């Protein structure tokens, strides 16, 4: 009965990216380890890690680049698990837009939502074809990616998730074309990770949480259909639509099968990339901001 | 008072207008869906919508109540203590200039993820029109009345109660009308602080997943509720100022 | 209640817009007596009353003294030229305003107000809002509100101007009765009224405005309409008032 | 009028208050930085901030102008045509209940990513307090004055011009004060519609880059500008209503 | 300008709050003459004037006729019991209000207004705002605004009540001169004033309110103060006014 309460802040509204968490929740993988996990969705993906740093929540779902920027700003955060182990971010244009290559973007308008990181991604991708950021018009469309693309107000968007926006566009009858960031000069990274407060690292609940998450992923890949029912079960019936079903299908292969494992050199490689792009000022010792829990 | 029949006519008119805008601007359905698909979405998600409406409704009403209370208090403080006013007024003005996303983490830090932080955000948006209008109204109290009260040896609190406040009620009412109109957006913005229920949350959610028709269903519901709230408050305010029956300027 | 004498020594006023009124006006108002102010429209009667009540919004040169000097909060009762009834209060509540503002309202006071309202011919209108009253009814309300104050100095600015002859006479009598013993300053344009009510009549006039005539009357106000004192002074007074200032 | 000295005192007071909040609540610097690091950030990013301020300043002023114009027009239409009012008022109330993100794609579709869509969004937020207060003020015009005008055989447009509008100016001023206070947030929200410049854009940008001190530097600048804008408008409005000198209710 | 006769046939009024006034009042007002209304405060004089002007906010039973019937927009000029000066306009602009509202303001009209203002003793105050004027000065402003209208029916509600004797007499004369030929209805509480100004005096009173006395006067107003017609009627009229209604 006296289960340990664990507040977990998601990065965004509930979507198939969070599947392992909900499967673990529904299957009781958390509770059987003595955890009472509460999942909260925010509307600004920036805030959850800050609140973990401030001690207002135990864990937060974050992005690897965001995490490294926050650590660089001195937030006492540590990555303890990975949810999605590949990049999802991509540059998307409409398939019938005549933009077959990134080079065709010269003089076009590109929308983005998150200043800093996404513009860096775009810079690097443009560099691959000999363009500069100033060769395109940048517009902050504030998370209104698909509508601005569909209504022809922008020619491409960076920050689109390949498992999501591509399906969205397809469903609206205007299929998109994605340029995957890791194929255009950006080192691979973990899209979604779980971060904790540095002071909490010795709490046994955190390891228990990662274990439950691992069990969740395993159940998910073993029983995808049953997992889907668990995911949309109960009070999340409104998630049951064509878009989420497709996104679910496309996300399945991208979950980290060993959530607790840490590929140290991959993290350092990405840190070097961010440093090189002047997104972060320095590279702290890895153990300060990313660990494998004992 | 607005009769049920008139309400229906107005609703029909608004929906007609909506359809007209859709037709006239040829807005694609993923940006502005027509009334019909939205109605279907509303029916399909009826119970979910009503569930979220409950939360937002509570936030709206609570935000309006607390906001009105806070607004009147601020106005009273500024009237009673002109010295304090010099400091309070700039703070109030700045409070209106701060965007949500800057405040959201602070509010959560101080008030947590519960209702409190959402209502606080709603209050922040709602209280200002009340405070400003009420204060201005009180400041415009007929000077002769104040002199009369002073000559009578009135206690300041009674001057406020029997003269200054009633004299400012029309101005207060005007501010409260504005506050009521922005109460829904106050509640919706409050839900951005981090929530898992409410129409604002649900709309963001639907928006993020491009369920535009669902989002507009929630929007239509929110609009309907705002209208009911607004006209109820409007009616009550007209009653409150019983000595000043309203009438048209032109002859209807 | 000890009535106060009022002394104005070399008073000059400057309004906010810079315009000036009086130029070293000196006036003495006897304690416990009724002084009526007469004078052409715009000569400064209302301003004088406001000045004494403390309600004037202008700069004062010269001196204003009260002898004895009661605290400002219990010194005067003032009835302005406008009725200043509160539109959100019933007639009764308006009449009771002073007590209510001081927080001293009790049943006796209310009873007394009701009696006075009836005496002023307003019975049945206790609960009416000012907007539903005639001009003269509102004026009577304002008068009763003032009379209920019972202060050492009673200042009344044309208090009966909107009343018919009969009602006017009744309320003059009522006023005299209720202000006995107080220092009363009453502004009026009605010569007959001044002659009925006053112990002393002060006529203002001229440029700059000064005391044109001062007249002490014998007998106790209110005088009856045919009183010899009235008949004796009526014609000369009217003559003074109708004579052009030089 | 506010003198330079008083301005400095108030600024110092506000900064002190800010520092006090930081100390009292022990808010961590990545949620609420103190004035000192923010000042450093402001100095380091001075020219960028001023560059973005330009854009936002134009949006604020343009939004305020267009919003006031639109608000007064709406109020006049509702006064002149009571029949139209029945339709217009609900639309206005609903316009206040619609959150930005629902409208943003529509505005961009109609107006593009230029200044126009941002100003439109700012106008949407700014115009309502003006419209509502002005309308209420006109509706409360002394009935006897209107009767007098009617008896005089007045032309309706002159009744508006010489009686109804001046009589409603204090109410209008009260609404415009509220509108001025929300003008900065109007401009900032406008920039969320999609932008590449402006303080709102820059704040979002800094926020995304976790440069909280830079964000607060932008916020402080925005606040300062709002204060200047507010007190300028306040001063002008007091001049405008020349026949009603303001004074305190209590004796300062 | 052809003056109109005014006929009230069996008029009863119901106010919004349900209270009633008059019970089948019938009254005929002769065309081109000055009719003075006298009566106790609250008897309905102001309401009657408002009714005729079309400004009354009440339900009318019975009939109100004008003979001839000019269009409503040029039928009456009305001066209410309050001055109703616009606080944002100077005295001159207030006096010119009618022309300005009709959009017919020209230089001649302004010149004429300036002359009248001087004649009313307000020279030098043309640009003053109402807030800086005395009660009587404001009342004169309202009177001039009304007199400038020159309508077939002139309705004036206690137009001289705030004026001193001299100013009052001057403005009475001015009014008579400017309203010659029009149907004038003038409410007053001053018997002398009624006797100076009226062709016919109507005394209202009783419950329900009805015409108590009607008195036709010989000679052309304004009568001089010592006029025999005045002396003849003064005492009896005062007696009627001072007599209690049964
Ligand atoms: N709006 C109203 N609602 C209800 N009753 C009203 C209203 N206006 C006037 N009355 C009543 O009608 C009666 C007549 O009012 P009116 O103003 O016509 O009197 P009057 O003869 O002009 O009196 P006075 O000499 O005091 O000016 C009064 O008893 C008053 O209470
Ligand atoms: N606030 C003010 N600003 C400027 N001048 C003023 C102000 N108040 C009054 N006055 C001027 O002072 C003079 C006296 O005004 P006051 O009201 O005292 O006259 P009064 O004797 O009461 O006249 P009335 O018999 O008409 O009521 C007038 O000429 C008026 O114009
Ligand atoms: Mg006066
Ligand atoms: Mg009357």
What does the model show?
Chains B, D: InterPro entries: MetI-like, MetI-like_sf. Chains B, D: Its main location: membrane. Chains B, D: The chain crosses the membrane at residues 60-84, 91-113, 119-138, 159-176, 182-202, 214-233. Chains B, D: This is Putative hydroxymethylpyrimidine transport system permease protein. The complex is a heteropentamer, with one copy of chain A (294 residues), two copies of chain B (252 residues) and two copies of chain C (246 residues). Chain A is of the alpha/beta class and 294 residues long. Chain A contains ten helices and ten strands. In chain A, the strands form two sheets. In chain A, strands 2-1-3-10-4 form a five-stranded mixed beta sheet, sandwiched between helices. A five-stranded mixed beta sheet of chain A has the order 7-6-8-5-9, sandwiched between helices. Chain B is mostly helical. Chain B has a single domain (34-240), classed as MetI-like fold, CATH 1.10.3720. Chain B has helices spanning 4-25, 35-44, 46-80, 82-97, 100-111, 115-139, 143-151, 156-191, 199-208, 212-240. In chain B, α3 (46-80) runs antiparallel to α4, α3 (46-80) packs across α6 (115-139) and α5 (100-111) crosses α6. By secondary structure, chain C is of the alpha/beta class. Helices cover 34% and strands 26% of the residues of chain C. Chain C has helices at residues 45-53, 91-95, 97-102, 107-119, 135-147, 165-179, 191-197, 228-242, and strands at residues 5-15, 20-29, 34-38, 58-67, 76-79, 153-157, 183-187, 200-205, 210-216. In chain C, the strands form two sheets. A six-stranded mixed beta sheet of chain C has the order 5-6-7-3-8-9, sandwiched between helices. Chain C has a three-stranded antiparallel beta sheet with strand order 2-1-4, with no helix packed on it. Chain C is globular. Chain D binds chain E through residues 142-145, 147-155, 158-159, 162-163, 166, 169, 242-244, and chain E through 50, 53-55, 57, 73-74, 76-78, 80, 82, 84, 86-89, 97-98, 100-103, 129, 131, 149. The complex binds adenosine-5'-triphosphate (ATP) (2 copies) and magnesium ion (2 copies). One adenosine-5'-triphosphate (ATP) sits between chains E (15, 17, 19, 21, 39, 41-47, 81) and C (131-137, 162).
């Amino acid at each position: 009965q006296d289960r340990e309460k664990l507040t977990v802040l998601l990065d965004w509204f509930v979507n198939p990216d969070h599947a392992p968490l909900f499967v673990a929740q529904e299957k009781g993988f958390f509770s059987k380890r003595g955890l009472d996990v509460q999942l909260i969705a925010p509307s600004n993906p920036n805030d959850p890690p800050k609140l973990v740093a401030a001690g207002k929540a135990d864990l937060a779902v974050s992005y690897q680049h965001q995490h490294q920027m926050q650590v660089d700003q001195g937030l006492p955060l540590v990555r303890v698990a990975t949810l999605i182990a590949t990049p999802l971010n991509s540059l998307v244009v409409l398939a019938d837009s005549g933009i077959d290559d990134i080079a065709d973007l010269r003089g076009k308008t590109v929308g983005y939502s998150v200043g800093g990181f996404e513009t860096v991604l775009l810079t690097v991708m443009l560099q691959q074809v000999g363009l500069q950021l100033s060769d395109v018009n940048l517009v902050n469309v504030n998370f209104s990616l698909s509508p601005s693309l569909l209504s022809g107000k922008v020619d491409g968007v960076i920050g689109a998730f390949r498992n999501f926006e591509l399906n969205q566009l397809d469903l609206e009858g205007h299929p998109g074309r994605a340029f995957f960031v890791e194929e255009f000069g950006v080192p691979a990274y973990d899209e979604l990770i779980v971060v904790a407060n540095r002071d909490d690292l010795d709490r046994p609940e955190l390891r228990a949480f990662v274990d439950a998450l691992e069990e969740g992923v395993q159940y998910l890949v073993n029983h995808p259909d049953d997992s889907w029912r668990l995911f949309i079960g109960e009070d999340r019936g409104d998630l049951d639509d064509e878009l989420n079903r497709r996104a679910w299908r496309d996300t399945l292969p991208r979950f980290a099968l060993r959530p607790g494992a840490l590929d140290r050199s991959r993290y350092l490689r990405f840190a070097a990339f961010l440093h090189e792009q002047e997104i972060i000022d320095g590279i702290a010792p890895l153990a300060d901001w990313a660990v494998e829990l004992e | 008072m607005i009769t049920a029949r008139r309400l229906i006519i107005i609703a029909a008119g608004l929906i007609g207008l909506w359809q007209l805008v859709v037709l006239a601007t040829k807005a694609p359905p993923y940006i502005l869906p027509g009334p019909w698909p939205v109605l279907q979405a509303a029916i399909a998600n009826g119970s979910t919508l009503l569930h979220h409406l409950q939360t937002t409704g509570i936030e709206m009403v609570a935000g309006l109540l607390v906001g009105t209370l806070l607004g009147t208090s601020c106005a009273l403080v500024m009237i009673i203590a002109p010295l304090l006013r010099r400091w309070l007024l700039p703070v109030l003005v700045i409070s209106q200039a701060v965007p949500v996303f800057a405040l959201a983490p602070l509010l959560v830090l101080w008030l947590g993820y519960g209702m409190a932080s959402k209502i606080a955000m709603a209050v922040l948006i709602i209280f200002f029109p009340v405070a400003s209008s009420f204060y201005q109204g009180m400041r415009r109290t007929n000077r002769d009345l104040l002199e009369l009260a002073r000559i009578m040896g009135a206690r300041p609190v009674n001057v406020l109660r029997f003269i200054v406040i009633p004299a400012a009620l029309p101005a207060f009412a005007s501010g409260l009308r504005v506050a009521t109109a922005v109460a829904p957006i106050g509640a919706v913005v409050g839900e951005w602080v981090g929530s898992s229920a409410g129409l604002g949350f649900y709309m963001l959610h639907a928006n993020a997943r491009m369920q535009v028709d669902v989002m507009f269903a929630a929007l239509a519901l929110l609009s309907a509720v705002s209208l009911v709230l607004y006209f109820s408050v409007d009616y009550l305010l007209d009653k409150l100022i019983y000595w000043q029956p309203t009438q048209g300027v032109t002859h209807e | 209640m000890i009535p106060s004498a009022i002394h104005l020594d070399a008073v000059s006023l400057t309004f906010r817009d810079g315009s000036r009124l009086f130029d070293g006006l000196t006036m003495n108002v006897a304690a416990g007596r009724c002084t009526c102010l007469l004078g052409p429209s715009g000569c400064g009667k209302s301003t004088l009353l406001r000045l004494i009540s403390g309600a004037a919004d202008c700069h004062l040169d010269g001196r204003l003294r009260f002898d004895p000097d009661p605290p400002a909060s219990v010194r005067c009762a003032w009835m302005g030229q406008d009725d200043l009834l509160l539109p959100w209060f019933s007639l009764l509540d308006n009449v009771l305003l002073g007590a209510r503002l001081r927080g001293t309202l009790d049943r006796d006071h209310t009873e007394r107000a009701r009696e006075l309202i009836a005496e002023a011919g307003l019975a049945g209108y206790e609960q009416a809002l000012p907007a539903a009253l005639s001009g003269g009814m509102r004026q009577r309300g304002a008068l009763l509100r003032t009379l209920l104050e019972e202060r050492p100095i009673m200042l009344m600015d044309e208090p009966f101007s909107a009343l018919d002859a009969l009602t006017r006479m009744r309320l003059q009598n009522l006023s005299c009765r209720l202000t006995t013993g107080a220092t009363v300053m009453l502004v009026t344009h009605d010569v007959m009224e001044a002659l009925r009510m006053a112990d002393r009549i002060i006529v203002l006039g001229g440029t700059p405005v000064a005391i044109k005539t001062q007249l002490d009357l014998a007998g106790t106000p209110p005088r009856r309409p045919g009183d010899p004192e009235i008949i004796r002074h009526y014609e000369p007074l009217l003559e003074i008032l109708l004579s052009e200032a030089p």
